[in-house]
Design brief:
- The protein is an alpha/beta fold and about 475 residues long.
- Helix content is about 40%, strand content about 15%.
- The strands form 5 sheets. A 5-stranded parallel sheet has the order 2-1-3-6-7.
- A hairpin with a 2-residue loop joins strand 4 and strand 5.
- Helix 17 crosses helix 18.
- The chain is globular.
- The two termini are about 40 Å apart.
Length: about 475
């Protein structure tokens, strides 16, 4: 079906990590590495979205965007770049690109741009909370397409308030530390509202400079600035009848805050370069990981806008404050990755269970998810112990079973894991190298994410990579 197909124009290793969650959500993915192949795919398969590199050998996204006038119903295009710049972002958005992202491609971000999911699809647990299939055995929480795992009273209070206000049009300010699930709650509110058959549109207010963010939010008219060759609808118009999420709202510049306040008060926008106001019917949700009251006192955020957004405040608890929820989420992620890698179910040892409950979790649910994937890859036949979380990579020693020729569970399991079989009978330094290469592959070369997955500093990772380069390894 055309509405369930996406096209990626990039090197395979930089995009294949999102193919599995796309498939789980009921979408198909096409891959091209040149203009002719891309145009042929667009005409034949009519994808609903295109994600493309700015430039590759023998290909440029600028040439692709130029083809838009020759193809009926040309799909929206998202540019994603390794080393982007504001100038490049402005150029492509003026040429008609829908959005401009920096690597790595994130399923969490891609999902926000997809058409409404098919009834058979399941929400991705990457959207932290975490999401699980409705009525999943052994889980308690609010039922529906977006269920949030949690039994702790602090979560129950927030969930109860969210469900109570979901059907209203009231603005909601969702605050909490990074990784606590703010976006997941925003999607929960939308999908439990009367607007759930309309668009859910999200924009990160920290990702673009002020002049680009204004155009993204409110759109622009043809000729509004150099390169504005067509009228462009902004996120508010694209979300008409539905919900808009303003992520990291405290990063918005004061000048743009004043314009946003008018939208909230009057229900209308002004496109950049426009002479007429445009009425919009959009529910506004916003998130922040800052103490926004302090930001207001510092004069960095408008007090009147704060009051307008803070009609319903949802303050999400840190994972360290959620008690036994830590174990519920840990088991959920372990089951997810065992299934994803084709491994037998794994249990936690008593020692690992105590470690999970005692740890402070500065990265919250996102950190927990990364550690559980790491543990699944390293635990073999289990049980999972705290050493499998790889908190001290320099002290890591492989399990005995992993040094006797075959990973526990058989050759088929090891191959499915894509990593365990490779660790049989090898020096620790070689195993470390394979782990590092695997982490870079999984994060599309993003060193910060890879270091986070490995549990080491970016500096340590950089030093290791420099050593490998000296050894002649091409990374």
């Amino acid at each position: 079906m055309p509405e369930s197909t996406l096209l990626f124009i990039a090197e395979p290793q930089s995009v294949t990590s999102v193919f599995s969650p796309l498939k789980e959500a009921g979408f198909q993915a096409g891959l091209a590495d040149n203009l002719a192949g891309a145009v042929n795919f667009i005409k034949k398969s009519k994808p609903c979205l295109i994600f493309t590199r700015p430039v590759m050998q023998g290909y440029s996204a600028q040439a692709l965007l130029a083809e838009a006038v020759n193809i009926e119903n040309f799909p929206p295009v998202v540019i994603f770049s390794r080393n982007g710049s504001a100038d490049e972002a402005l150029k492509f958005m003026e040429l008609g690109a829908r959005d401009y992202w920096l690597e790595p491609l994130s399923w969490e971000k891609i999902k926000l741009m997809l058409p409404d999911e098919k009834p058979s699809s399941m929400p991705s647990p990457d959207q932290l909370g975490a999401a699980v299939p409705p009525d999943a055995p052994g889980q308690k929480g609010t039922q529906g397409r977006y269920q949030i795992i949690g039994q702790h009273p602090a979560m129950a209070r927030v969930l109860g308030l969210a469900k109570q206000v979901a059907k209203s049009k009231a603005t909601v300010l969702i605050s909490g530390e990074s990784g606590t699930g703010k976006e997941m709650f925003a999607r929960f509110l939308h999908h439990h509202s009367d607007r759930n058959d309309k668009p859910f549109v999200a924009i990160n207010c920290a990702a673009l400079p002020e002049h680009l963010l204004e155009s993204e939010l409110f759109g622009h008219e043809k000729g509004a600035f150099t390169g504005a060759i067509n009228r462009k609808l902004g996120k508010f118009e694209l979300a008409s009848g539905g919900t808009i999420l303003l992520d990291e709202i405290t990063e918005m510049e004061l000048g743009l805050q004043a314009k946003l306040l008018r939208v909230l008060q009057e229900g209308e926008i002004d496109r950049v370069g426009g002479v007429e106001t445009v009425k919009v019917d959009v529910r506004v949700l916003a998130t922040t990981n800052r103490a926004i009251e302090e930001t207001v006192k510092e004069g960095k955020f408008r007090q009147d806008l704060f009051y307008r957004l803070n009609v319903i405040p949802l303050k999400l608890p840190a994972l360290s404050q959620r008690g036994e929820d830590i174990l519920l989420l840990a088991k959920f992620f372990v089951n997810k990755y065992c299934t994803e890698y084709g491994l037998s179910p794994l249990a936690f040892s008593a020692e690992a269970t105590k470690w999970l409950l005692d740890y402070e979790w500065p990265g919250n649910v996102r950190e927990l998810q990364n550690l559980m994937e790491r543990a699944v890859l390293l635990a073999g036949a289990g049980p999972i112990e705290s050493k499998h979380f790889l908190n001290d990579p320099d002290a890591w020693m492989p399990d005995e079973a992993h040094t006797e020729g075959e990973a526990p569970g058989g050759e088929q399991q090891a191959d499915a894991a894509g990593i365990a079989a490779d660790f049989a009978v090898m020096p620790i330094s070689e195993m470390e190298k394979k782990l590092i290469i695997k982490s870079l592959d999984q994060t599309s070369g993003n060193r910060t994410k890879a270091a986070e997955l490995l549990g080491i500093s970016v500096r340590t990772l950089r030093n290791k990579l420099n050593d490998y380069k000296k050894q002649g390894l091409d990374l």
